[in-house]
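sorry for the late reply, my laptop died twice this morning and i had to redo everyting from scratch. anyway the thing you sent over, i finally got around to it. pasting the sequence first so we're on the same page, its 138 residues, then the predicted structure underneath. double check i copied it right bc i was rushing
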Amino acid sequence: SMICGKNRKNMTRRLIIRLSSLGDVILATSALEALQRRGEPPVDWVTSREYVSLLQGHPMIRRVIAFDRKSGLDGWGSLSRELWNEKYDEILDLHDTLRSRMLQRWFSGYAQQNPMQARPRWIRFPKQRGRFAGLTAI
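ok and here's the structure:
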């Protein structure tokens, strides 16, 4: 359950994953409006390096995390450990590709290694679901 507005200490820490493409990254920002209307705190967002400037400065984005797709599997693995250490409560997977599914699998492995750390709730929004239709209902 998501907590709205009142006690910032108990607010949900969220990460959005949408790496590409240009149009999809822009469309995915509609999720931010829904969160803002509900009084939710700003989110962190992982995107491809070339789209960072599109997201920086948005009032509902606390931090934009750049991923260089040229860094390959090793870079994605390093980033996965950094993201795990951020202790997100919820991950909105707006990418839903092999790469983001690998991240979820790695998080499961980290959770087994760190049983005291809560595993984030993972919510997938497959692209085929009407180009992110329903994001406003998060």
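The chain has a mean pLDDT of 85.
thats about all i looked at so far, will dig more tmrw
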